[in-house]
Amino acid sequence: MDIDTGEGLTHPLMRWLAGVGEQIEGAVECPTLSLPLREYESALREIAVCEARLASLRSSLTRQAELNEVRKLTGAANTAGWVQQVTRMGRREASVSVRLAKALDQTIQATGSALSEGEISLGQAQVIERAIRRLPNDVDAAVRAEAEAFLLDSAQALDTDDLDKAGKHLYEVIAPEDAERRIGKQLEEHERRARESRTLSFGPVRDGMGTMFLRLDVPTLAILQALLDPLARPRPTGPDGPDLRSSERRYADAFAELLALAQAAASAPTRGSISPRLTVTMNHDDLANKLGYGTLNSVLTDSGPAHLQVKTQAGPDGSGSDERSGGSGGHALIGYRITGPPLSATLVRQLACDAEIIPVVLGGDGAVLDLGRGTRLFTYSQRHALAERDGYFGHFPECRRPEKWIEAHHIQHWVDGGATDLNNGVLLCQHHHTVIHTKGWTVRMGDDGHPEYIPPPWVDPYQNVIRPNDTTLIRR
């Protein structure tokens, strides 16, 4: 056979591939609609055999290209890079292809012969290569050959998934101690990656419904399921009829109940000594008459700034009142709020009875918002009033930490005689709280009733006053 590759001559392989290409083109153009149903299986098997034999040829060519360092003709860093350039495979797929080609030539020749005969698929050959490579180095050649023969025999009845399981089982039988050690290390790595990949995010709120995206590692997911299972059982049939909820609905209801239980628990998570609660803003008369709607103050949606008036009480010495409140308590403009999802008056009344709800305006009559120096920590009601004023985020310029994660800071420190009231408070995240205390920044109450900041001279030589609310506050 003439294999001279000089100019003007064509290698037999190239002529053969050209002929195969013509045959395949004819097969592709042949209509399959008229193929008898009884011949579909035979046709698919023949295609699988052709794919396997072509894969064997490609592996052989890849191996020879590696030995001849063909990669140097294109400047590829390695043979896998050359294969990736030529075939447009992914990097991992190209690396697997080169590794398999080498193994078929050196360590699993029987698998190479089976692939070239179309007796196994390319995927099965990759599984066998992986299983043999997994064996410890001290396993002798005879045992490796027996293992390969066992997998080749199993490949006649098993698909790639089951063959992979057989390969792992073979590994555990041949080298149980090594398998236990390696599997343990692999599990530890998988578990570490799973913990680092945990995610939770909130989607948009539409038509009264929101979306939460959650990915958890297996142990955490198992704990969550164990907590939900008792709460997700179908309710017994009662006067209102049988429980017709779907399984998905029951688990969603169980999750809502679990959150309520966690919120009401004495050991519920707190932030700044405050248990998790909700704030709903609503007109008192509408709420009393079950009319209109309220607004759930939440960062789930941001509809822009709006004025908020909160009732304040004057102290025995007249503190807590000013010109805007008439000097003896009343309605005071304390800033803007982030408006969130609307809630019906009926639902607000229900939540106010059954949940930890702070109804702004409704709760203004009973909430003490201005305290003297007798109390060092800002109360829950004060923190919420500060949040209403400062926008439910850290007030420091450009800070977007949610109110739940931030701290109430005395503008004039409590130790220096500063009162624990709204006119001396500002919400700051932990980082910016430290900045105010240690980095030379000054915070003071501006003429508009909102905090303003003076940077240190090494930040701004002119120490221009920064007012974060200038672009958002609607002044009267």
TrEMBL record:
GO terms for molecular function: endonuclease activity; nucleic acid binding; zinc ion binding. CDD domains: HNHc. It holds the Pfam family DUF222. Residues 308-328 are annotated as: Disordered. Residues 381-434 form the HNH nuclease domain. Belongs to the Rv1128c/1148c/1588c/1702c/1945/3466 family. This is HNH nuclease domain-containing protein. It comes from Actinopolymorpha pittospori.
